[in-house]
Protein backbone atom coordinates (compact mmCIF):
# COMPACT_ATOMS: atom_id res chain seq x y z
CA UNK A 1 0.00 0.00 0.00
CA UNK A 2 1.23 3.51 -0.70
CA UNK A 3 1.56 5.99 2.18
CA UNK A 4 -1.39 8.16 3.04
CA UNK A 5 -1.47 11.32 0.90
CA UNK A 6 -0.98 14.61 2.76
CA UNK A 7 -4.07 16.23 4.19
CA UNK A 8 -4.98 19.10 6.47
CA UNK A 9 -6.20 17.98 9.90
CA UNK A 10 -9.33 19.63 11.19
CA UNK A 11 -10.89 19.79 14.65
CA UNK A 12 -13.20 16.88 15.48
CA UNK A 13 -16.80 18.14 15.23
CA UNK A 14 -19.15 17.89 18.17
CA UNK A 15 -21.75 15.14 18.14
CA UNK A 16 -24.60 17.65 17.84
CA UNK A 17 -22.92 19.40 14.91
CA UNK A 18 -22.43 16.10 13.12
CA UNK A 19 -26.06 15.06 13.68
CA UNK A 20 -27.18 18.39 12.24
CA UNK A 21 -24.99 17.82 9.20
CA UNK A 22 -26.51 14.38 8.64
CA UNK A 23 -30.01 15.79 9.00
CA UNK A 24 -29.26 18.50 6.45
CA UNK A 25 -27.82 15.95 4.04
CA UNK A 26 -30.87 13.71 4.39
CA UNK A 27 -33.27 16.58 3.70
CA UNK A 28 -31.48 18.13 0.73
CA UNK A 29 -30.24 14.96 -0.90
CA UNK A 30 -33.64 13.37 -0.31
CA UNK A 31 -35.20 16.24 -2.22
CA UNK A 32 -32.58 15.76 -4.92
CA UNK A 33 -33.56 12.09 -5.23
CA UNK A 34 -37.13 12.98 -6.06
CA UNK A 35 -35.97 15.58 -8.55
CA UNK A 36 -33.41 13.22 -10.05
CA UNK A 37 -36.01 10.56 -10.73
CA UNK A 38 -38.21 13.16 -12.39
CA UNK A 39 -35.26 14.38 -14.42
CA UNK A 40 -34.18 10.89 -15.47
CA UNK A 41 -37.74 10.00 -16.42
CA UNK A 42 -37.73 12.89 -18.91
CA UNK A 43 -34.13 12.36 -20.14
CA UNK A 44 -33.29 15.95 -19.17
CA UNK A 45 -30.02 17.14 -17.56
CA UNK A 46 -29.94 18.40 -13.99
CA UNK A 47 -30.95 22.08 -13.86
CA UNK A 48 -28.72 24.68 -12.27
CA UNK A 49 -30.45 25.86 -9.05
CA UNK A 50 -30.23 29.26 -7.42
CA UNK A 51 -26.84 29.74 -5.76
CA UNK A 52 -26.84 29.35 -1.98
CA UNK A 53 -24.16 29.71 0.68
CA UNK A 54 -24.26 26.97 3.34
CA UNK A 55 -22.10 27.10 6.43
CA UNK A 56 -18.60 25.55 6.36
CA UNK A 57 -18.39 21.93 7.56
CA UNK A 58 -15.62 19.77 8.94
CA UNK A 59 -16.69 16.43 7.45
CA UNK A 60 -16.85 15.87 3.71
CA UNK A 61 -20.07 14.43 2.31
CA UNK A 62 -20.27 12.41 -0.93
CA UNK A 63 -23.40 11.08 -2.69
CA UNK A 64 -24.59 10.17 -6.17
CA UNK A 65 -25.13 7.31 -8.60
CA UNK A 66 -25.89 3.83 -7.33
CA UNK A 67 -23.56 2.43 -10.00
CA UNK A 68 -20.63 3.95 -8.09
CA UNK A 69 -21.55 3.09 -4.52
CA UNK A 70 -20.33 -0.50 -4.10
CA UNK A 71 -16.88 0.14 -5.58
CA UNK A 72 -16.51 3.57 -3.97
CA UNK A 73 -17.32 2.15 -0.53
CA UNK A 74 -14.60 -0.49 -0.93
CA UNK A 75 -12.10 2.14 -2.04
CA UNK A 76 -13.10 4.47 0.79
CA UNK A 77 -12.73 1.66 3.35
CA UNK A 78 -9.19 1.00 2.10
CA UNK A 79 -8.35 4.70 2.20
CA UNK A 80 -9.60 5.09 5.77
CA UNK A 81 -7.76 1.92 6.82
CA UNK A 82 -4.55 3.64 5.74
CA UNK A 83 -5.34 6.54 8.07
CA UNK A 84 -7.09 8.76 5.55
CA UNK A 85 -8.99 11.84 6.72
CA UNK A 86 -12.75 11.35 7.27
CA UNK A 87 -15.03 11.32 4.22
CA UNK A 88 -18.65 10.19 4.55
CA UNK A 89 -20.43 8.37 1.72
CA UNK A 90 -24.23 8.33 1.56
CA UNK A 91 -25.30 4.68 1.28
CA UNK A 92 -28.50 5.39 -0.68
CA UNK A 93 -28.39 6.25 -4.36
CA UNK A 94 -29.64 9.66 -5.48
CA UNK A 95 -28.55 9.14 -9.08
CA UNK A 96 -26.03 11.10 -11.10
CA UNK A 97 -28.47 13.99 -11.61
CA UNK A 98 -29.41 14.06 -7.91
CA UNK A 99 -25.75 14.08 -6.91
CA UNK A 100 -25.01 17.00 -9.25
CA UNK A 101 -27.94 19.00 -7.90
CA UNK A 102 -26.96 18.29 -4.30
CA UNK A 103 -23.40 19.41 -5.12
CA UNK A 104 -24.61 22.71 -6.58
CA UNK A 105 -27.06 23.16 -3.70
CA UNK A 106 -24.21 22.79 -1.20
CA UNK A 107 -25.66 19.68 0.45
CA UNK A 108 -22.58 17.60 -0.43
CA UNK A 109 -18.95 18.23 -1.35
CA UNK A 110 -18.60 15.70 -4.19
CA UNK A 111 -21.03 13.94 -6.53
CA UNK A 112 -20.59 10.42 -7.88
CA UNK A 113 -21.64 10.09 -11.52
CA UNK A 114 -21.85 7.11 -13.87
CA UNK A 115 -22.43 8.99 -17.11
CA UNK A 116 -20.70 11.77 -18.95
CA UNK A 117 -21.89 15.26 -18.13
CA UNK A 118 -23.54 17.47 -20.71
CA UNK A 119 -21.87 20.81 -21.53
CA UNK A 120 -24.31 22.77 -19.36
CA UNK A 121 -23.98 20.36 -16.45
CA UNK A 122 -20.17 20.52 -16.51
CA UNK A 123 -19.94 24.31 -16.17
CA UNK A 124 -17.93 25.25 -13.10
CA UNK A 125 -17.23 21.63 -12.17
CA UNK A 126 -14.21 19.32 -12.29
CA UNK A 127 -14.70 15.66 -13.29
CA UNK A 128 -12.22 13.05 -12.03
CA UNK A 129 -12.72 9.59 -13.62
CA UNK A 130 -11.52 6.77 -11.36
CA UNK A 131 -12.96 3.54 -12.79
CA UNK A 132 -14.82 1.98 -15.70
CA UNK A 133 -16.91 -1.14 -16.09
CA UNK A 134 -18.55 -3.02 -18.93
CA UNK A 135 -22.33 -2.92 -19.40
CA UNK A 136 -23.52 -6.52 -19.93
CA UNK A 137 -26.71 -8.51 -20.28
CA UNK A 138 -27.38 -10.67 -17.22
CA UNK A 139 -29.13 -13.95 -18.10
CA UNK A 140 -30.63 -16.77 -16.02
CA UNK A 141 -28.54 -19.51 -17.66
CA UNK A 142 -24.86 -20.37 -17.91
CA UNK A 143 -24.35 -18.92 -21.38
CA UNK A 144 -21.58 -16.34 -21.15
CA UNK A 145 -20.98 -16.04 -24.90
CA UNK A 146 -21.36 -12.61 -26.55
CA UNK A 147 -24.83 -11.56 -27.66
CA UNK A 148 -25.54 -9.18 -30.54
CA UNK A 149 -27.17 -5.80 -29.83
CA UNK A 150 -30.05 -6.72 -32.16
CA UNK A 151 -30.78 -9.83 -30.06
CA UNK A 152 -30.87 -7.71 -26.88
CA UNK A 153 -33.27 -5.27 -28.56
CA UNK A 154 -35.50 -8.24 -29.48
CA UNK A 155 -35.67 -9.20 -25.80
CA UNK A 156 -36.99 -5.76 -24.89
CA UNK A 157 -39.54 -5.98 -27.72
CA UNK A 158 -40.91 -9.13 -26.08
CA UNK A 159 -39.83 -11.53 -28.81
CA UNK A 160 -38.71 -14.28 -26.40
CA UNK A 161 -41.13 -16.10 -24.14
CA UNK A 162 -38.56 -18.07 -22.15
CA UNK A 163 -37.16 -15.12 -20.16
CA UNK A 164 -38.51 -12.15 -18.19
CA UNK A 165 -36.79 -8.92 -19.22
CA UNK A 166 -36.30 -6.33 -16.49
CA UNK A 167 -35.98 -2.65 -17.36
CA UNK A 168 -34.36 0.44 -15.85
CA UNK A 169 -35.85 3.91 -15.66
CA UNK A 170 -35.54 6.30 -18.60
CA UNK A 171 -32.16 8.02 -18.51
CA UNK A 172 -30.37 5.14 -16.77
CA UNK A 173 -26.61 5.45 -17.21
CA UNK A 174 -26.19 1.88 -18.45
CA UNK A 175 -28.76 2.40 -21.18
CA UNK A 176 -27.14 5.75 -22.00
CA UNK A 177 -23.82 3.95 -22.43
CA UNK A 178 -25.41 1.57 -24.92
CA UNK A 179 -27.17 4.43 -26.72
CA UNK A 180 -23.82 5.99 -27.59
CA UNK A 181 -22.91 2.76 -29.42
CA UNK A 182 -26.22 1.18 -30.52
CA UNK A 183 -29.10 3.68 -30.53
CA UNK A 184 -31.61 1.09 -31.78
CA UNK A 185 -30.97 -1.11 -28.73
CA UNK A 186 -31.50 1.79 -26.34
CA UNK A 187 -34.64 2.86 -28.23
CA UNK A 188 -36.07 -0.66 -27.86
CA UNK A 189 -35.42 -0.56 -24.10
CA UNK A 190 -36.97 2.89 -23.65
CA UNK A 191 -40.00 1.99 -25.76
CA UNK A 192 -40.59 -1.00 -23.47
CA UNK A 193 -40.40 1.34 -20.45
CA UNK A 194 -42.88 3.82 -21.93
CA UNK A 195 -45.30 1.05 -22.84
CA UNK A 196 -44.86 -0.60 -19.40
CA UNK A 197 -44.13 -3.86 -21.22
CA UNK A 198 -42.07 -5.26 -18.35
CA UNK A 199 -41.19 -4.38 -14.76
CA UNK A 200 -39.13 -1.17 -14.35
CA UNK A 201 -36.53 -1.04 -11.55
CA UNK A 202 -35.44 2.36 -10.25
CA UNK A 203 -32.16 1.52 -8.50
CA UNK A 204 -29.13 -0.73 -8.87
CA UNK A 205 -30.03 -2.45 -5.59
CA UNK A 206 -33.53 -3.30 -6.84
CA UNK A 207 -32.18 -4.54 -10.17
CA UNK A 208 -29.50 -6.66 -8.51
CA UNK A 209 -32.04 -8.28 -6.18
CA UNK A 210 -34.49 -9.03 -8.99
CA UNK A 211 -31.81 -10.50 -11.24
CA UNK A 212 -30.66 -12.73 -8.39
CA UNK A 213 -34.03 -14.04 -7.19
CA UNK A 214 -36.29 -14.07 -10.26
CA UNK A 215 -35.63 -17.44 -11.88
CA UNK A 216 -35.89 -16.41 -15.54
CA UNK A 217 -34.90 -12.72 -15.26
CA UNK A 218 -32.65 -10.96 -17.73
CA UNK A 219 -31.54 -7.34 -17.86
CA UNK A 220 -28.72 -4.85 -18.20
CA UNK A 221 -26.18 -4.44 -15.42
CA UNK A 222 -22.53 -3.56 -14.71
CA UNK A 223 -20.02 -6.39 -14.78
CA UNK A 224 -18.10 -4.87 -11.87
CA UNK A 225 -21.16 -4.80 -9.62
CA UNK A 226 -21.94 -8.42 -10.47
CA UNK A 227 -18.56 -9.38 -9.08
CA UNK A 228 -18.74 -7.15 -6.00
CA UNK A 229 -22.26 -8.24 -5.13
CA UNK A 230 -21.51 -11.94 -5.63
CA UNK A 231 -24.54 -12.45 -7.83
CA UNK A 232 -25.15 -15.90 -9.25
CA UNK A 233 -26.53 -14.65 -12.55
CA UNK A 234 -24.27 -14.91 -15.59
CA UNK A 235 -23.09 -11.99 -17.71
CA UNK A 236 -23.19 -12.05 -21.49
CA UNK A 237 -21.03 -9.43 -23.24
CA UNK A 238 -22.93 -7.30 -25.74
CA UNK A 239 -20.85 -7.26 -28.92
CA UNK A 240 -21.12 -6.89 -32.65
CA UNK A 241 -18.16 -8.50 -34.35
CA UNK A 242 -14.83 -7.47 -32.88
CA UNK A 243 -16.09 -4.24 -31.33
CA UNK A 244 -14.73 -3.12 -27.99
CA UNK A 245 -17.09 -3.48 -25.00
CA UNK A 246 -19.51 -0.69 -24.04
CA UNK A 247 -17.74 0.99 -21.13
CA UNK A 248 -19.50 2.91 -18.37
CA UNK A 249 -17.21 5.46 -16.74
CA UNK A 250 -17.39 6.19 -13.01
CA UNK A 251 -16.25 9.61 -11.83
CA UNK A 252 -16.31 11.97 -8.87
CA UNK A 253 -17.34 15.58 -9.53
CA UNK A 254 -16.33 18.60 -7.45
CA UNK A 255 -16.41 22.36 -7.86
CA UNK A 256 -13.64 23.62 -10.15
CA UNK A 257 -13.17 26.58 -7.82
CA UNK A 258 -13.93 25.35 -4.28
CA UNK A 259 -16.54 27.49 -2.48
CA UNK A 260 -15.52 28.93 0.88
CA UNK A 261 -17.84 26.47 2.64
CA UNK A 262 -16.40 23.38 0.92
CA UNK A 263 -13.99 20.97 2.58
CA UNK A 264 -12.10 20.52 -0.72
CA UNK A 265 -8.87 22.01 0.61
CA UNK A 266 -8.74 19.38 3.38
CA UNK A 267 -10.11 15.83 3.69
CA UNK A 268 -11.82 15.73 0.29
CA UNK A 269 -8.70 16.86 -1.52
CA UNK A 270 -6.67 14.14 0.23
CA UNK A 271 -9.25 11.47 -0.65
CA UNK A 272 -9.35 12.47 -4.33
CA UNK A 273 -5.55 12.39 -4.45
CA UNK A 274 -5.66 8.84 -3.09
CA UNK A 275 -8.52 7.86 -5.42
CA UNK A 276 -6.25 8.51 -8.40
CA UNK A 277 -3.16 6.94 -6.82
CA UNK A 278 -1.43 3.67 -7.82
CA UNK A 279 -2.80 2.00 -4.66
CA UNK A 280 -6.39 2.86 -5.62
CA UNK A 281 -5.79 1.78 -9.20
CA UNK A 282 -4.45 -1.59 -8.04
CA UNK A 283 -7.46 -2.18 -5.79
CA UNK A 284 -9.90 -1.00 -8.49
CA UNK A 285 -8.54 -3.56 -10.94
CA UNK A 286 -8.40 -6.30 -8.29
CA UNK A 287 -12.13 -5.75 -7.69
CA UNK A 288 -12.96 -6.35 -11.35
CA UNK A 289 -13.02 -2.80 -12.70
CA UNK A 290 -10.67 -0.96 -15.04
CA UNK A 291 -8.75 2.20 -14.34
CA UNK A 292 -9.78 4.97 -16.78
CA UNK A 293 -6.43 4.88 -18.59
CA UNK A 294 -6.02 1.10 -18.61
CA UNK A 295 -4.77 -0.18 -22.00
CA UNK A 296 -7.36 -2.97 -21.76
CA UNK A 297 -10.21 -0.63 -20.83
CA UNK A 298 -11.70 2.58 -22.21
CA UNK A 299 -9.71 5.27 -23.96
CA UNK A 300 -8.47 7.99 -21.59
CA UNK A 301 -10.12 11.38 -21.79
CA UNK A 302 -9.58 14.69 -20.12
CA UNK A 303 -12.04 16.19 -17.68
CA UNK A 304 -14.41 18.76 -19.21
Short description:
The chain is of the alpha/beta class. It has 11 helices and 10 strands.
Secondary-structure blueprint:
Blueprint: H1 15-41, E1 60-64, H2 66-81, E2 87-89, H3 95-105, E3 110-113, H4 119-122, E4 125-139, H5 149-156, E5 164-165, E6 167-168, H6 173-179, H7 183-194, E7 200-201, H8 204-213, E8 217-222, H9 223-229, E9 234-237, E10 247-255, H10 264-275, H11 278-286
Parallel strand pairs: 1-2, 1-3, 5-8, 6-7
Antiparallel strand pairs: 3-10, 4-8, 4-9, 4-10
Helix pairs in contact: 1-3, 5-7, 6-7
Summing up helix and strand content along with how strands pair, one would put the structural category as alpha/beta
Could you state the order of secondary-structure elements as H and E? HEHEHEHEHEEHHEHEHEEHH
Number of strands: 10
Question: Sheet with the most strands?
Answer: 8 strands, mixed
Shape: globular
Tally the structural domains.
Answer: 2
What is the third-level CATH name, the topology of the largest domain?
D-Maltodextrin-Binding Protein, domain 2
Q: What is the CATH level 1 assignment of the largest domain?
A: Alpha Beta
**Average pLDDT figure:** 81
Rg over alpha carbons: 19 Å
Helix content: 40-55%
Task: Report the CATH superfamily of the largest domain.
Answer: Periplasmic binding protein-like II
Strand portion: 15-25%
Amino acid sequence: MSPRPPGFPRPTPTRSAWLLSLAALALVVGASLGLARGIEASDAPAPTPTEIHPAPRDRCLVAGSGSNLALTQRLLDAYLAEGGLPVDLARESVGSAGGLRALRDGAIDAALVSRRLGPDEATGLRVIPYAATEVVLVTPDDDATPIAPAAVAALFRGERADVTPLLRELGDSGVATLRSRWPALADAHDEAVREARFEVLFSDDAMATALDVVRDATGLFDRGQLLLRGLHARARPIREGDETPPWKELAVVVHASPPTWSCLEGPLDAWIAWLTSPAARELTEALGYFAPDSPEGPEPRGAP
